[in-house]
Amino acid sequence: MSGLEIERKFLVHKKMDWKKLASNCSHIQQGYFAAVNTVRVRIRDDKGYLTIKGPSRTGGLSRYEFEKEITLEEAQQLMLLCEPGVIDKHRYLVPFGEHTFEIDEFHGDNEGLVLAEVELGSEDEAFEKPDFIGMEVTGVRHFYNSHMRRNPFKLWRDSIPEEYR
């Protein structure tokens, strides 16, 4: 898959039971390579992916993305070449209205952080927000997975409101 990725990102209210709405859950591990653009390898359950993301010109709302499925063995071998700071999370898919929210529950040094993303067809596309969706963090670098591998949530968790940590 390649093309323009348009997504908005939000913190998730901790005390709301959003997991019961999930239609799917998968375990994701991803590592990053030193590069000008964001280059990552991802293992999602038993599949591998290589992804390259370009810079955002719209405050984090949209950017070019290239993604290709690779074998699990290739992904495991590439993980050995990644820089320190593997991202470990569970991703839940929660259908709501006309969209599906991808909710990431992070583990390890990012334990306690829960983020929701919704992919859109255009930057001004309207969408319904479920009650568990909170403060928008689209374009805030702290919440980029590639940033959290070097600056994990455990170091800055007190900087966000308590209902999200």
From TrEMBL:
CDD domains, per the entry: CYTH-like_CthTTM-like_1
Sections of the chain in a coiled coil: none
InterPro entries in the cross-refs: CYTH-like_dom_sf, CYTH_domain, NeuTTM/CthTTM-like
SMART domains for the chain: CYTH (SM01118)
Active site: Y32
Gene3D superfamilies given in the database record: Hypothetical Protein Pfu-838710-001
SUPFAM superfamilies in UniProt: CYTH-like phosphatases
Annotated ranges, domain CYTH: 3-150
Name under which the protein is recorded: CYTH domain-containing protein
